[in-house]
Write a structure and sequence with these properties.
The structure is a single chain. The protein is an alpha+beta fold and 98 residues long. The protein has one domain (2-97): Alpha-Beta Plaits (2-Layer Sandwich). The chain is built from 2 helices and 5 strands, in the order E-E-H-E-E-H-E. The chain has a 5-stranded mixed sheet with strand order 3-4-2-1-5, with helices on one face. The longest helix has 20 residues, at 71-90.
Length: 98
């Protein structure tokens, strides 16, 4: 099951996602693909808007990053969080908060 956590403070936002969803075999897992797409789009949007990703870590089944908190970064992270929440509601056995 994929677990995610989003921690906000006045100064920064931390996103951490770990484990594979295991909805289907590798290459056919629509839940993992959806999560990966949402995270990649968020990171790319932050980068394209000039917001530096801090403390980026990525390995198989794990990704985490931080970004300085402001109205725009909060909006982008909120959109990511809403996407992950919908996935956790649609696939409760495969995605959940930590």
């Amino acid at each position: 099951m994929t677990k995610y956590e989003i921690i906000r403070s006045k100064e920064e936002i931390k996103v951490e996602v770990s484990e594979h969803a295991k909805y289907a075999d590798k290459g056919y897992d629509i839940v993992c693909a959806s999560i990966s797409t949402a995270i990649t789009m968020t990171i790319n949007a932050l980068d394209n808007l000039g917001y530096n990703i801090i403390d980026f870590k990525k390995q198989d089944g794990y990704i985490s990053f931080k970004v300085k908190s402001n109205d725009i970064t909060l909006g982008l992270i909120k959109t990511l969080e809403e996407c992950l929440k919908v996935l956790s509601e649609d696939y409760p056995n495969y995605v959940n908060t930590k």
